[in-house]
Amino acid sequence: MEKEVLDSLAKANQFMVDKYNYVGDYFDEKSYYKERPLNKKLAVSGNELKAFQGLPIFVYGSIEEGANEGTKYGNDRRVKDSDGDYRALGFSYIDEPYPNPDFDIDEITYVRRWIREPWELPDSDVKGITKELSPDDPRDTHKNQYLEYEPDKFASTYSVIRQWVKNSKTFLPYMVEKNTGNRKFFNRCIEGPLPPGIAENPEDYIYIIQPPTYESWGVGIAFYYYGGTGPDNMSKPNYYSYYQYFRYKPFILLADDIMPLFETMQSSAVPGTQVQISVKIDSTFDKVLENVTYKWEITSGGKPIENVIYLGKNTVDVGTVNLAADKTFSNMKVEETCGEEGEEAEEKTEVMGAPVLYASFTMPEGDVDIRFEVNTDESVKEYNGIHESENRKIYERDYSNNVITRTIKAVKPINTTGEATLDYNVLSKKINIPLPDKNGMTAELDLGNGWLVSNVSGKINVTNETPRLYNPFEVTGNIIPSGTRRDKITLNPEFSTTIHRKDVTYDSATGLYDNPEEKKYLDGPAMKAKTGTVKAEGTANATRRYYCGGCKWIPNNSEDSTDGTWECPGHNEDISATFGHVTDQRAITAKIYNGMEFVPQKKYLDEIRSNTTNSLSKEMFWTSEPYKFNVVRWMAHENEMGELYGWTAVPGRYQRIFTQQDKAEIKWGTVRTMQMDYEKSREAARNRNYNKESYDKAVFASDESLKSYRYPIKSGYYFNPTGTYTFEVKTEIYKPEMKPTAEHRDIVQSLIDSFRYESNLIYIDNNNRAVNIQNQPVPVYGGKLSSVPVALTAKDPTGVNDAMLLYTEKEIAVPVYEKLEHSQESGKYTDPRLLAILEGYSESGTQSSKDKYKYREYIKDGQSMYKITETTKVTIKINPDNVRLYTNPYMPDGNYVVRVYFDNINLARSGNEYKKLGELKGIENLDRIEITVKGSIFDDIS
C-alpha cells in the first residue's frame, strides 16, 4: 500500500511539473498547513469510491472534521444526508474542505445568480465590495450584490464562502494562464453540464479547491444568490446564498477523448436579429485524427431553423474535420487507438490547432435549441448516408461528452432608458440622451471632520460600447468644471450621436444592409434591431485637511519632559468618490420597406368592336407596349426634436411598368361608286343616245331586248374600271418619344394592302390575247374562255397591257402629342395615368403603402411619355386616267361581277402589341355591280 501511495503522489507531482510548471512537489503525505495525514485508501487506484471510478483522490484528515468544517456557517446544517453520506470527505492539500460528490443537495427550482470571482472578498480594511452576478436566466435583472465583511457570522455569505475558500491563489485564472498559457486549461476536465450562468467562462466563477492531475481527481466550488423557492423567485432580491460542487476529471479520463465545446454562445437573442455561435472541437489524442464526423442540429419548437449558414472549417451541417494531436497526454503513454475496434491509423496529415465551426441564423420568435455532436453513431450514420461513404466511429475512452446542447432564449428588447426608431422614410436619426436622466450623476466626497484644500477634479468616463452603431459619438457635461470646490458634485453627462440606417441594418454574416441612397435594399416590410449600449462611470478627486486627536508632543517645560500637550498640525489626505455606474441600453430599430416588386396592373381592353364584314366603322382596343420607368422616393434625416430635414430623392428599388389603352378608329367610305361613274354611259344607252362622248366609261348595249338588265354589255366593246374609295384611320398610342408611331403606319399600310378591286371580266390586250383584269392569260376550256375573278391591289396595281389602274393617295394630319406631365418633386403635378403605375397612390390601388410605410414613388426626371394621336385619310382611285380596256369579243355570255372590298387582316402577323387581337374583318362589298354580257361586237358589225 505504501508504495502505491507514493507512486500516486509521484504521478500527481510529475503532472504539476510537466503541465503546470510547478517547481518542486505540490502534493505530500501531510496537508500543507495543518499537517493532516493523507487518506491512503483513497489515494490509490482501485479505491472504494465508485463516484471516482476507482481513481485516486488526495484527501487529508478525517471525514467528520471536513464535513463539520463545511457546515459551520451555512443555513443547511446537515453534516450527513439522508443516505448517511458526509458533506465532505476531509480536506484538500491546503486544508480546505473537500466536497463529497455523493452528498445529496436539494433539487434546484429557482434562478441562481452566480458570484463572479468568489475568492475576491472584503476584508478588515475594505468592509464591503460590490460583486458582479451572472444569472442563469437572462431575464433576471439582479446582476450586482453588495457583499459585507462579516467574519464568523452564521448564514452570512462572506462566512459561508470563507469556510470553503481560504486564501490560496495557486489555481486562480490568472495563475493558470501564467503557468499553462491558457486560463481555461482545466475547464475541459469539469464533469457534467455547466449551469447557463457560468457556461461561457466557468473559470471566473469556480474556485479550484484541488486540481486534477494525470490520474487523480480535482474539485471546485461556486457560490450563488437566489431570491427564494417560490414561483416568483426571479423577481425577488438576493435573500439567500448557497453553493455547488464541480468535479474535475483526471486527465487520463480525457485522454483519447474528443470534446466539442461552445466557444461563443449567446444565452439570449432578440427575434429577427442575427445570431452566431461557434463550437471548438478539442482532441486529447496524441496524434492527428482524420475525417471525424460531426452534426449540427438547430431547432425551435422542435422544427429545424431555416436558412442557417455554416462557416469555419466546414460549411455544412453534417461533415467531417481533422483534429490536431494534443501533446498534453504524451507523458501518459496511452495506447493509440483510432478505429472502433482499436486498429492503428497511420498519421498522414499535419493539423494545427482545434477546428472552430460556426453557425449563423436569424433568431426566430421562440427559443432555439442547439445540439452539436461529434464522433457519434448518429453523425457517422448520417454522414455516410449523405456522402455514400464508409466512415467509422473513432474509439474513445468516453463518449458521454461528445454531445453538447444549449438553449438560446428568445427575449424582447430590453430598453432600460428608451428606444430610437428610424421610420420607414428616415435615413439617419440624431439623439441626445442624458445619463441616466435629467437629474444627472452625483458623487459625494466624505470630508469627515475636515475640509477641502483643493479644487475637485475628475470626470465621468462615458464609453460607447457600440461604435459601429453610434457614429459619430459626442459627450458633453461629463467633466467637473475647473474651480469647483464642494463635497457634493452633480454632473449631467449627455451623449449625442447619429444613427444611420446602414449601421442598424448591417448583417455581419451576409454583408447585407439597407441603405437606398447606395441602392442597397432589404426586403420589407420588416424591422431590423440592434442594441446601443453606453456605459458611464467615474470619480471625483480632491484633497481634504483634517486634524487628528493629537500626533505631536509639545513640551511646556524644557526641564520637565512630562509637562506638555499632544497637538496636531493638520494632515492632508487625497480622497475620492464615485459617480456610480450607469449603463444605458437602447433598442435601435430601423423600419424597412422598399416597395412591392409589382404594382397591380390596370386591365385594359383587348378587343375589336363592330368587327363584322358589313360594318364600315370599327374600333380596335389593345394594351399598349410596356415601358419601364425609373422611380425615386423621398427620404429624410431626423433631428433630436423628431423633425425631418434634408429630404433626399433616393433611387427606387424596382422599375415601374407603364401600360395604357391604345386604340384605333377605322372608317371606310366611297367617294364615287361604280354606279355613279357608269350612270352617264348607262343612261345614254337606255335612251339610245349614240353620241360617243356620252360613253365615257363604258359602252352599254342599247338593244331593246337588253333594256331590262341593269348593266348589259356586248363583248368586244371597252369597259373601263372605275371608282374612288376612301378610309380614315385615327389612332391614340402611348410612346416615350415624340415621333409618328409604327403602329399607326402599319395599320394604314395593312388596310391599303387589304384593298381589292375584283373583276371576272375577260379583256383583250394589244396582242389580241384573252386576259383578265391583271393582264393574266385566260384559260380556254371546251373551246370557251373561262372566267376567273382576279383583283387589283396596291401591291399589284397594273392591269391590262400593264396599264396603271390603281392609285393610292394619303392625307396625313400633323400628329398631336400630349405629354403626360410629371415631376419627381413632392407636391407637384403628375398625370393620373402615371400615378396608376406608381406605388403609394389611390390611382394604383396602393395608397396603403403611403399610409402604413410612408412610401410613395415619383417618376424620376428625364423620362417622358406621350399620348400620340395620328390621323391618316387614304383615297384609292381606280383608273383615274380612264384608260380604255376592251373586253374580249369571245367572252362568253353570262353574268359577271365587279366588286370592291377590303380583305380580312391577320393582326397576329404584326410585330405590334395589337397582334393579340387576332383578325380584323374587312368590308365584304364596299362597292359592287353585276354586268350582263349578251352578244358581241360581231353582232353589231354584221
Helix content: 10-25%
Q: Whole-Å distance between the termini? A: 163 Å
User: How many H/I helices?
Assistant: 12
Structural class: mainly beta
Fraction of residues in β-strands: 35-45%
- Subunit organisation of the chains: single chain
Give the number of DSSP strands.
53
**What about the largest sheet?**
7 strands, antiparallel
Q: Give the low-confidence spans.
A: 333-347
Shape: elongated
Rounded to the nearest angstrom, the radius of gyration is 52 Å
Notes on the structure:
11% of the residues lie in helices and 36% in strands. Strands 31, 32, 37, 39, 46, 47 and 49 form a 7-stranded antiparallel beta sheet that branches. Strands 3, 4, 5, 6, 7 and 8 form a 6-stranded antiparallel beta sheet that branches. Strands 10, 12, 13, 15, 17 and 18 form a 6-stranded mixed beta sheet that branches. The termini are far apart. The radius of gyration is 52 Å and the shape is elongated. The chain is mainly beta.
Architecture blueprint of SSEs:
Layout: H1 2-20, H2 63-69, E1 88-91, E2 97-99, E3 113-115, E4 128-135, E5 144-148, H3 157-164, H4 173-180, E6 207-210, E7 218-226, E8 240-248, H5 251-254, E9 258-264, E10 268-269, E11 274-283, E12 289-300, E13 303-304, E14 309-312, E15 318-323, E16 356-362, E17 368-374, H6 377-387, E18 403-410, E19 418-422, E20 426-434, E21 441-444, E22 451-452, E23 457-464, E24 473-476, E25 488-491, E26 494-500, H7 501-505, E27 526-546, E28 552-557, E29 560-567, E30 571-592, E31 607-609, E32 617-623, E33 627-629, E34 631-638, E35 644-651, E36 656-658, E37 661-672, H8 674-686, E38 712-715, E39 724-735, H9 742-754, E40 755-759, E41 763-764, E42 770-771, E43 780-781, E44 784-785, E45 790-792, E46 806-812, E47 816-819, H10 832-835, H11 847-853, E48 857-859, E49 866-878, E50 894-902, E51 905-906, E52 919-920, E53 923-936, H12 937-941
Parallel strand pairs: 10-18, 19-30, 20-34, 38-53
Antiparallel strand pairs: 1-2, 3-4, 3-7, 4-5, 6-7, 7-8, 9-11, 11-16, 12-13, 12-15, 12-17, 14-16, 17-18, 20-26, 21-25, 22-27, 23-27, 24-26, 27-30, 28-29, 31-32, 32-37, 33-36, 34-35, 34-48, 37-39, 39-49, 40-45, 40-50, 41-42, 43-44, 46-49, 47-49, 50-53, 51-52
